[in-house]
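Consider the record:
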Amino acid sequence: MFGWLRGILAILVCLSLAAQAQASRVSPMIVELEPTGTGSIARIDLVNDGLRDIPYEVQMMRGVITPEGQLELNPADEEFLVFPAQAMIESNSQQVFRIQYVGEGALDRSELYYMAIRQIPVAFEPGVTEVQMVVNYNVLVNVVPRGSAPEPVVVSARAASRTVPGPQNQAAPDEDATPIEQLGVEIELSNAGNRFFLAGLSRWSITGDVGEAPFSQSYKGDEASRIIGVGVVAPGATRKFFFPTDAGLDPASVRVTVAP
């Protein structure tokens, strides 16, 4: 009678055990290196809190972020020394990866890379049915020459809207949420400096008018990152960001400032 229930419970237990077996974490997720000297070396810790040994491999990639925020990665292993390049991390243990930048030393601006840490899928024993979650990490690695500095420039800021998923219908949770229009401000931001800029960790101020009433919205610390993410803007690059305002601003009144 309760065979179906036992089957569901068994599936949930397997999923839970698989999730526990694959639990891992990486620190730090953002690294700064100098082009030469002792500052060109960093260590990244990967902790396996799971119940199973997990194999990982590392590859260094040059990163390009489009204005819309899409990350494009290209191999850049020749510009780094990585040790170890592969590792089997035992259950409840930690692995230290060391990276060293060995590329161009005379940089006139910071360069953007990512350390791609990829879990290698493993084969299960014959007859074993189990869910395997393959986890990958991209650690942001900025190679930064001394004396460099970011220079964020607001190219444009305009009242805009975008379509986002609406709240889930609790009476019909299997149905897709009805999209809604979200009002806000679309900002095009460039970096005229020679050092990377983290827009999500910067101070933002958005002002304008809603009808006859003044509107003001500000962010500091990591508050903006909850909306736009870390928001990496490389030197000479441009990014577009959207901040919801929950009210339609008079287009002529929109003003935006941002500072590191």
